[in-house]
Amino acid sequence: MKLNIRAFAIAQAFAAVILFIVCAFFVGFLPDATMSFTKYALHADLSGIMRPFSFGGFIVGLLVVSIGWGLFSLIMASVYNSLTKNAA
Question: What is this structure's pTM?
Fold first, then answer.
């Protein structure tokens, strides 16, 4: 099965946008609970590196994460297609 590279990358970038917005919501409105969860999920205490939360930072982060995830997905779909082109 050949993947549509463009559609896959756009879908993954959209998923990144949704996840980023959900994460930003929790960081913005429930910072202590989010940090407690992060400690357990990552097995690390990241509370010492918290940054101020701003709308500009949200927009830049949203763009960087969505574009980066989309580009990574584009590369992975291309690799998948090249590895499976000779498969039955």
Answer: 0.81
